[in-house]
Amino acid sequence: MKITALAGGVGGAKLANGLIGLLSPEDFCVIVNTGDDFIYSGLYICPDIDTMIYTLAGINNPVDGWGLKNETWNVLYELERLGHPTWFNLGDRDIATHLERTRLHSSGYTLTDVTKKLSSYQGVKHNILPMTDSPVQTIISTEELGEISFQEYFVKYRFQPTTKKIYFKGVEAAVLPEEARSRLISSDLVIICPSNPFVSIDPILSVSGVREILSKKTIIAVSPLIGGKTIKGPAAKLMNELGTVPSSLNIAKYYGNLLTGFILDHTDHEEADAISQCGIIPLVTDILMPDSETQIKLASKVLKFGQELLKDK
Amino acid sequence: MKITALAGGVGGAKLANGLIGLLSPEDFCVIVNTGDDFIYSGLYICPDIDTMIYTLAGINNPVDGWGLKNETWNVLYELERLGHPTWFNLGDRDIATHLERTRLHSSGYTLTDVTKKLSSYQGVKHNILPMTDSPVQTIISTEELGEISFQEYFVKYRFQPTTKKIYFKGVEAAVLPEEARSRLISSDLVIICPSNPFVSIDPILSVSGVREILSKKTIIAVSPLIGGKTIKGPAAKLMNELGTVPSSLNIAKYYGNLLTGFILDHTDHEEADAISQCGIIPLVTDILMPDSETQIKLASKVLKFGQELLKDK
Which residues in chain B are closer than 8 Å to A90, comparing Cβ atoms? Predict the structure, then answer.
């Protein structure tokens, strides 16, 4: 069974980390959101790709979710002293990742190739594929601050501004890179990770051709909400601001007819019937993944569910 | 007495450091070579300006000449592991300087303004002024490797390739920034520091209008050679390759009628007469500056010499 996952940051990386424990690099890859990417004081930074690489390499900071474990902060201390903004946490070893990405990209490598090299240096064998090689920027249109980039919204302002609208600047010109495209086309099953639908999955779905390929696939999404709340990040807050009650049911409805199956937490079991009535097959289980054991456990359930859905097809 | 110094890296910074001990920020500034500047993996790096800032702030590494004392190397260790080239030594706190410069410059500040901010953060009160705000790149045309940038020649290849020609890419479009220009015009005395004439001082002299302003000034140069050898760097090797015997006399001749006075070391006292015969007034003294005491001592001799030359004018 060939499988492709679509993912954003921390939640997506957790499930992907479970899946790589069960699937070979030939059978599994993950396509990652690049709408959060930005150039920061010359450094080409891809927050979601970095979280994915670090998590799959087992070198991520398990407390914060982002960044590296046992990180040092010598550059950041000096940046603070020099008056450089410090809202974006630049760890010393993390900076090395950004510098190497910047170097490779400016010498002509595509983001796909750069990501492959960085993954390989960290010992990651499974393919981490950016959703596109061209620049796409998730813009949050806020009531208080006007239009700001996702990193400003998420990190600098800790997702406190009120969101009016979200759009993906440059996505009209973005294409799915060849490798991501062929892996997605040849997939039997697509897994939408428990990432934020609005700012992590929507950018991927907005890349030209992606929805068309997905329309022919068996797709399972895992809810990013438990009891109407997010584990991390602004999904629930965004839903409120965009006029929807934050719930697993409304996440399933948001993805709509893209989905064959939807996995939600026991906490939300009462929503399963309503999800069924939308023509989406629900699976109720534990979706919280605090450690690698629970990541593998959920991954295994997702795969079993996928196999059943494919059999019934 | 208003004084402007022209300088490159380590040798120039040493004399400038002596001069700031004797002169107020109103009376003294230094115009620094920017031909060595380069973009390295996204970082905007100005080696000579950094050496000048760090030296005048008293935070330079006195052993290597470049970089900061008590520096740490966490980013570089990781860069090495990731396959990023490590021929250019990026210290952690040094990286903070480059990041802040890159940020300020990309947000619209001129290099002059950026340098002022960085100097001020490090507690430097005297003006360090880049020779120009636009990009100029010193190119070394070598026998073995063709055309390479100065940092590649100097750091990566440790000035071992044979030089055929040196030129300053972009210098035709370069102008002296307004502040450097007005400081230079109002100077009573100009000091050419013991920097490499070919790769540190020539770029400054090549900026449009500089030679014209200098033609009306009393100028003293300090020899960068002792006994036909350099303290540091490729000046003597370059002279051999460009077809001149490396000597203080030939340095004086190279600057030619730009100079009023020339300071050379006791070791080279026999060259003083020949320098006189070129119409340049020689001063023989100790020009080695291993510590701040000798830097102030030489600076004081330069100033006294300058006063005499101005009196005799």
Answer: 99
Structural domains counted in chain A: 2
Q: Got the DSSP string for B146-214?
A: EEEEHHIIIIISTT-SPEEEEEEETGGG-B--HHHHHHHHT-SEEEE-SS-IIIIIHHHHHSBTHHHHH
pLDDT at B62: 83
Q: Is A79 on the interface with B (CB under 8 A)?
A: yes
Whether B63 has its CB under 8 Å from any CB of chain A: the answer is no
Same domain assignment for residues A102 and A141: no
pLDDT tens for A65-121 read 889 999 999 999 999 999 999 999 999 999 999 999 999 999 999 999 999 999 999
- Closest by alpha carbon to A24, among A126, A168, A177, A98? A126
Is the model more confident about B176 or about A233?
Answer: B176
> Are B121 and A95 inside 8 Å of each other by CB?
no
Domain termination site, one of A167, A189, A221: A167
pTM to 2 decimal places = 0.94
Give the domain extent around A149: 137-167
**How far, in Å, CA of A126 to CA of A26, rounded?**
8
| Arithmetic mean of pLDDT over chain B | 96
Whether A274 and A201 share a structural domain: yes
The per-residue pLDDT for A313 is 76
- Is there a single domain that holds both residue A306 and residue A184? yes
- What is the interface size between A and B, counted as CB pairs within 8 Å? 102
Same domain assignment for residues A60 and A159: no
Q: Kindly state whether residue B80 falls inside one of the protein's structural domains.
A: yes
Predicted pLDDT of residue A126 = 98
pLDDT digits over B84-133, tens only? 999 999 999 999 999 999 999 999 999 999 999 999 999 999 999 999 99
DSSP string of B6-46, one letter each residue: EE-SHHHHHHHHHHHTTS-TTTEEEEE--TT-EEETTEEE-
- In this structure, is residue B142 part of a structural domain? no
The pLDDT assigned to A165 comes to 95
Smallest CA-to-CA distance from A49 within A9, A6, A94, A105 is with A9
Cβ contact, residue pair B74, A72, below 8 Å: yes
Interface test with A, best of B68, B75, B93, B122 (most A CBs within 10 A): B75
Residues A73 and A117 reside in one and the same domain: yes
Q: Are residues A162 and A305 in the same domain?
A: no
Question: How far is B40 from chain A, CA to nearest CA, in Å?
Answer: 7
The candidate with the shortest Cα–Cα distance to B299, out of B217, B158, B193, is B193
Q: Is B79 on the interface with A (CB under 8 A)?
A: yes
Residues of B in contact with A121 (CB under 8 A): 81-83
Residue-level pLDDT at A166 = 96
Give the domain CATH number at B121. 3.40.50.10680
Does one domain contain both A229 and A288? yes
Phi, psi at B23, each rounded to 5°: -125, 145
SS3 A66: coil
Same domain as A200, residue A285: yes
